[in-house]
Structure formats: structure tokens, C-alpha cells
Description:
CATH architecture: Alpha-Beta Barrel
Low-confidence stretches: none
Radius of gyration: 18 Å
Structural class: alpha/beta
Helix content: 25-40%
CATH topology: TIM Barrel
Distance between the termini: 16 Å
Mean pLDDT: 97
Strand content: 15-25%
Strand order of the largest sheet: 2-3-4-5
Number of helices: 10
Number of domains: 1
Order of helices and strands: EEHEHEHEHEHEHEHHEHHEE
Amino acid sequence: MKIVEIPAFIDMHVHFREPGFEYKETIETGLKSAQKAGYEIVCTMPNTKPVCDNLNTLNYILEKSKGYSCKLYPVCAVTKNLNSEELVDFETLSNAGAKAFSNDGLPILNHSVFYNALKSEKLILSHLEDETKEAIWQIQIFEELTREGFSPRLHFCHISKKSTLEAIKAAKARGLKITCETAPHYFTFTKENVTDTGVFKMNPPLGEESDRLFVIDSVKDGTIDVLSTDHAPHGNEEKLLPYDKSPNGITGLETAFSLTFAQFGLEKTLELMSYNPAKILGAEIKGKNKFDLDKTYTVHGAEFSSKCKVTPYENMILKGVKIDD
């Protein structure tokens, strides 16, 4: 038995699906899942229905999240209705409680729109589809704005590929103040783990063993700043459909600490899950977690607080159990 008291966690990238897709997850079940796992702050993505690009939806989400020990930081869309064309009113939404902006799974491919988004100097969480190619041109725009005297803020979501990390590492070596995250599935699995169903289906998809190993090295050398889960629950039945018919996304909150601790140890895990995301968001971590670092458990999705009980970690034996006083 090894009991430690450590800071609570922050997840910069979750999907709680409400409003619009409550059969997948609700704000209540998402926050309960986060609380169970030891999170104090979670940042929810805007791909709801309606899209979180307006004050009504933003206020609805904030109201629904009141009363929980885990705080919900809403991420609003960069462009209206995620259409990658017309920018939202950054100032109005920021003043009302938006902590960052992202187009999530519908990335901005228009260079001038992305330029103007970064020019706002708001925190932009960039989800990449054609991962390396998009990262390279977005870094170029970031660098251009920096030379012009602006202070853009750019954070790359769920990086999974060696080539992308090489581009980010080179940018950081040039002094560019960009940040990035990965998720546990990218240092745990490869495409060899994928089955006929959607259990291992996510976006970006799982890569080669060389990608997995480079993700690990990039955490160790500091290229990767943050561990996020990209917690993206779906209905249990749709997640178990054949791979080509199943939606992208897996649950991740309730296994994240153990997977990261097993791979990187406690000090690096706290950098990734507490200290670095707090710096990026300008947040203060007030809560503490107690963990028994020696205690093991077997992952059973049926025991998750999340609505989605399907998990690629099913039956894995992990170490590190949160102790609730």
C-alpha cells in the first residue's frame, strides 16, 4: 500500500454530448465520471446540437454544470455552426465563460479564417484531420502572427503521429510557444489492436508501433505538454457496430490516471494531467486526490459512471486506485 495525496486533474478535451445527444452522455454523467476519476476541471468540446457557438447554448451548459465538485469549462466553436467560414464573437463568448475555442472534428481548412482566429489571441484548440499536413501550415501561420507582434495561443489536440510531433518539436526549438496533447490510447495501442467492431475506433486512428513509441519519447522530452482523454462516449450498441459503421471515439476519463502513471511515473503524470494544463488555461487547482498507487483493479466498463460502458481497456489490470474519504 502506498497512499499519496496529489493535486486534482484537468482534462482539456472531453465530449459530454449535451445538448443534443444525451443518449451518449449528459453533463451530469460526464461530470460524475470525471469526479470519480479525480478531475477538478474538464473542458467540453462544442460539437453539441445546437453547436456551442452562442450565448444561449453556452449559458445552458454552464447552468447544467452547477453544483458539482468538478468544474466544467466550456469550449466554444471557432466558427458559427462549425462551418469553418464565419468566426464567432470571441469577446462576447469569452466574457460569458468560454475558456477556449475549437472546431473539434470539423477543422478549419481555410488559412485566412485560421489566421484571423489566432489573431484574436484567444486560446485555440486545434483538432487536426490530415494531422501532419495541417499542423505544418498552422504552425506557419502562428509564426507569421508572432513576427507581426501578436500573441497567438495555439494548442494541438490529441496528437498521434511521429511526423506531427517532429514538426511540433521543430517549432518549439525555434521558440514558438505552442502546446500540444496526446491521449492514453496513443501510447497504449496501435492499429494492430483494432478489431472488427468500433471498440478501438477513434480519430485520429491508431497508428504504427513507431508512432506509439515516438509519442512516449515526446512525452518524456517535453514536446507533449498535456495528457487529455478525448473522452468521447457513444451509445453502447452503436459503438459495437462493425468498424466501418461505428462512430469515432472512446471513453477515457476513468482509466486515464492509471494508464499514464504506469507508463510515465507519478511526477510526469502530474505535469501532464495537472500542472501543465493549469498553466495553459490560467486555472488554479484547489482540490486534492488520494490514491493508493500500489492497489490494482481490473477495468470493467459496466462499472463506469459514464453512460458508455464500451472500452478498449476492458479486462486490463491497472494500478492506482482513488481513495474517497
